[in-house]
Design a protein that fits this description.
The chain is of the alpha+beta class. The chain has 2 domains: 200 residues, Ribosomal Protein S5, domain 2; 173 residues, Alpha-Beta Plaits. Helices cover 42% and strands 25% of the residues. The strands form 2 sheets. Strands 1, 2, 3, 4, 5, 6, 7 and 12 form an 8-stranded mixed beta sheet that branches. Strands 9-10-8-11 form a 4-stranded antiparallel beta sheet. A hairpin with a 5-residue loop joins strand 6 and strand 7. Helix 2 packs across helix 3 and helix 4 packs antiparallel against helix 5. The two termini are 15 Å apart. The structure holds adenosine-5'-diphosphate and magnesium ion. The site of adenosine-5'-diphosphate (ADP) has 17 residues, from strand 5 and helix 3.
Length: 384
């Protein structure tokens, strides 16, 4: 659906003229499972957006329609509203969190359409939260500074929806910029937009089309294991607050005394933070080979130490690495399915896509979706 389709569909459904806001999905280039360890991440916004068209209404209720699901729902804007285990929780949660922060919202009619693949690890959830947030704020003529808005959107997902995610997804969906990836310090929320020159290479995202159920419980288990590691290392260095504070030298001194699984998890996080910094340093000299090597090492660490990959992701990554012009390949997102991210030299992009799609389909019987991407602009209103 393009913008005019959305405008027309809104007018047909609600008989009003809306304002329209859009927020992008994202892919994380490197820095996986570091966000909740106060560490570093390096995502970019995708050229795929969730769009929310909105108009106010007198009654204090939200009428919401998702064109992706062809489903309408209505909910009241009461302070005691809670999650229903429904897709509208992301929108309701955003309204709830904004009201809790002191922004009194009127009722509204919303029309949602997204070309971010839903539930594939490219963060359609953050795109929905952030586009909804801008839409709600427009009704009361308010804006909120980006980092604070990211915190509120994260809060909607953590506290209302009940998904204990880090802040990366919301942050990049707000702050993304064309031709730049975003280096984020997840502790201080200091960030830097780093130029990502698209003249020599492309980011190719490969969707495995699988999502294993293990995901949610394994995620919470990894978080616990990281916290255990922190607690144990605090006995040696009381100033350590998160794995972010542990140097490789310190880790090597105590590695043998940690429970083996905890040591593995810690090693991933500590080396992954180092890889993010090295990958970004590589960009300052346009050393894409070095950037790609860090991506490869990241995958191997996620597979072997953090153990959040799966067969399909490993196959996709192996197939990618065997293609000419592939500088780096790794799983991206939480793991156990979802997508891989690949850095591919420009002249090889077409053949890369063809071969990987074919080989993956032969191996799994699944037709993967591939997205050739350039870094895009973060959330904003569409001028109608
Ligand atoms: P991801 O963020 O990786 O896409 P999540 O499981 O975090 O996966 O979020 C996906 C959920 O977000 C969906 O199951 C649905 O509830 C909600 N969602 C996202 N986009 C839409 C949309 N366009 N319409 C309705 N619900 C959506
Ligand atoms: Mg999500």
């Amino acid at each position: 659906m393009n913008i005019l389709d959305i405008l027309q569909a809104f007018q047909e459904r609600y008989d009003r003229t809306p304002r329209i806001f859009q927020a992008p999905g994202r892919v994380n280039l490197i820095g996986e499972h570091t966000d909740y360890n106060d560490g570093f991440v390096f995502p970019m916004a995708l050229e795929r957006y969730t769009r929310v068209a909105i108009a106010p209404q007198k009654e204090r209720r939200l009428d919401i329609y998702s064109a992706n699901l062809d489903e309408a729902t209505t909910l009241s804007l009461n302070a005691n509203e809670t999650a229903r285990g429904h897709w509208s929780d992301y929108v309701a949660g955003m309204a709830h969190v904004l009201e809790h922060a002191g922004y009194v919202l009127p009722g509204a009619m919303l029309y949602i359409h997204s070309d971010v693949p839903v539930g594939s690890g490219l963060s359609s959830s953050a795109a929905l939260e952030v586009s909804s947030a801008l839409a709600f704020l427009s009704l009361i003529d308010q804006t909120i500074p980006g980092p604070e808005l990211a915190r509120l959107a994260q809060k909607a997902e953590n506290q209302f929806v009940g998904m204990n995610c880090g802040i990366m997804d919301q942050f990049i969906s707000i702050h993304g910029q064309a031709e730049h990836a975003l280096f984020l310090d997840c502790r201080s929320l200091d960030y830097q937009l780093v130029p990502l020159d698209s003249s020599g290479a492309r980011i190719v995202v490969c969707n495995t089309m699988v999502k294993h159920e293990l995901g949610a419980s394994a995620y919470n288990q990894r978080r616990d294991q990281c916290e255990t590691g922190v607690r144990l290392m605090q006995q040696h260095w009381p100033t350590i607050r998160a794995l972010r504070d542990v140097s490789m030298t310190q880790f090597l001194l105590v590695e043998g005394s940690l429970p083996p699984v905890v040591a593995q998890r810690c090693r991933h996080v500590i080396t992954e933070n180092e890889r993010v910094l090295d990958a970004i340093a590589a960009l300052s000299t346009t050393d894409l080979q070095r950037f790609g090597r860090n991506m490869n090492d990241s995958h191997d660490s996620l597979r072997d130490d953090y153990q959040v990959s799966c067969e399909e992701l490993d196959w996709m990554v192996e197939m990618a690495r065997s293609q000419p012009g592939c500088l780096g390949a790794r799983m991206t997102g939480g793991g156990f399915g979802g997508c891989s991210v690949n850095l591919v030299e420009l002249p090889h992009v077409d053949s890369f896509c063809r071969s990987v799609a074919q080989q993956y389909a032969e191996r799994t019987g699944l037709a993967p979706h591939l997205y050739v991407s350039v870094p895009s602009r973060g959330a904003h209103e569409i001028n109608l």
